[in-house]
């Protein structure tokens, strides 16, 4: 008997989308991302905004006419870069290509096991004027460090995440996040990383610890047992 997650959120109970389905929806998400940017920065007259609001409502109703119970997964890892279940989470708020809220952050797995992400954040991610919101940096670190841990063979939930904001992080310039594993101990894994500006200055550093949840290990053991007995 295990403490399993509710069935609706288990990856195996979700819809899996093929490459073409992902591509069509990713184009929609990209347009909506541009829409979010336009909404934040628009200066058209109020009457026009009111009219557009009705049009957006109509589009929301059309998309909502058929609705999944949970965000879908990709049936192959995005870009084939990261052999981690998270790279298939199309609705992820940091990396999900189908989530307009996600920048989305791309990943490059380097041969030494570290991860590099290069991304640019615009106005929808603003905290202090002209600068990246600290919570957005935290979300990006959470995901990138977590994927780095997953790639090292210890996929887990974030147990701790500590950030040191050294300098302001600018909007509208390419930022580089590098992440690496520093320690592994059973089902615990520590990773750290930093965000740098194009001139190589570190703006934020982070350290995190991930734990493979006991219930996931128990589920895996149950599945292995089922396979042996079937
Ligand atoms: C590929 C993956 C990419 C992931 C990117 C995104 C990551 C996320 O955003 S995850 C969401 C945010 N995190 C969460 O919601 C986690 C909530 N917490 C939990 O689910 C559980 O507490 C969890 C999974 C961390 C640990 O639970 P459980 O499996 O029962 O572990 P438990 O047996 O209590 O502890 C195992 C060990 O970890 C330690 N530990 C557990 N939690 C913590 C913590 N928060 N801080 C420090 N140590 C901890 C315990 O002390 C224990 O250590 P030891 O073995 O030395 O005694």
UniProtKB/TrEMBL annotation:
Q: Name one GO biological process term.
A: fatty acid metabolic process
- Which is one GO molecular function term here? hydrolase activity
Its membrane topology, per UniProt? Answer: Peripheral membrane protein
* The protein's name in its UniProt record: Acyl-coenzyme A thioesterase THEM4
Enzyme nomenclature, EC number: 3.1.2.2
Q: Which UniProt keywords apply?
A: Apoptosis, Cell membrane, Cell projection, Cytoplasm, Fatty acid metabolism, Hydrolase, Lipid metabolism, Membrane, Transit peptide
- Organism domain of life: Bacteria
One GO cellular-component annotation of the UniProt record comes to: membrane
């Amino acid at each position: 008997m295990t403490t399993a997650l509710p069935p609706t959120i288990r990856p195996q109970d979700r819809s899996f989308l093929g490459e073409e389905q992902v591509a069509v929806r990713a184009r929609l998400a990209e347009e909506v991302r541009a829409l979010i940017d336009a909404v934040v920065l628009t200066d058209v007259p109020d009457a026009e905004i009111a009219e557009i609001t009705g049009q957006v409502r109509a589009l929301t109703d059309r998309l909502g006419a058929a609705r999944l119970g949970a965000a879908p997964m990709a049936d192959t890892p995005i870009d084939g870069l990261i052999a981690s279940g998270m790279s298939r989470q199309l609705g992820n708020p940091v990396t999900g290509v189908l989530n307009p809220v996600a920048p989305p952050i791309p990943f490059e797995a380097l041969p030494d096991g570290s991860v590099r992400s290069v991304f640019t954040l615009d106005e929808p991610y603003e905290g202090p004027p002209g600068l990246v919101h600290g919570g957005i940096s935290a979300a990006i670190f959470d995901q990138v460090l977590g994927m780095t841990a997953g790639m090292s063979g210890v996929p887990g939930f974030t147990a701790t995440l500590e950030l040191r904001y050294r300098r302001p992080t600018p909007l509208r310039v390419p930022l580089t996040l590098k992440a690496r594993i520093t320690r592994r101990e059973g089902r615990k894994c520590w990773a750290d990383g930093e965000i740098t500006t194009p001139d190589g200055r570190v703006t934020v550093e982070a350290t995190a610890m991930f734990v493979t949840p006991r219930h996931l290990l128990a589920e895996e053991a149950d599945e292995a047992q089922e396979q042996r007995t079937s």
